[in-house]
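Lab channel / #folding
Pinned by the channel admin:
"Please post every new chain as: sequence first, then the structure tokens as a reply. Keep commentary short and put observations after the output so the thread stays searchable."

First post following the new format, from NK:
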Amino acid sequence: MRLNQAGAAGAGDSDLVVHQDDLGAVGHEAFILHGELKKKADVAGAGVDKNGSGSTMQAAAALKSHNLGLGAELESTVEIWTSQVKHVLQACAHISNHLDYSKKLYAREDAGIAAEIRGRTGSLPVSALNDYFK
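Reply from TO:
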């Protein structure tokens, strides 16, 4: 299932419904995940020495200095891991920021619609409600 598109035109089997509370909760969880991941997944920076090398990279250098192929592989693994963690951090930040923005935007739109409806005198015809659907 793709989340970034609606079903085919006229398809009645759409199953994605999102409420503002859901948006806020998902955005908040993405924010928390970003913080925890940033603290706990930094393999390259763990046990940093005075030269700025983490303990895993220090181990890789020691293995390489003894002509063991494992050193280069360990170094490569740390580089790939670090790259992947950065991508996940970016995704979490994007999700959090986007959902926070969406929640605020929809709240403003809802408030505007409510204010306009309250400002009317008499009953609101159904045809006027159609103007709010895009």
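NK: The mean pLDDT is 78.
TO: also worth noting, The longest helix spans residues 69-119.
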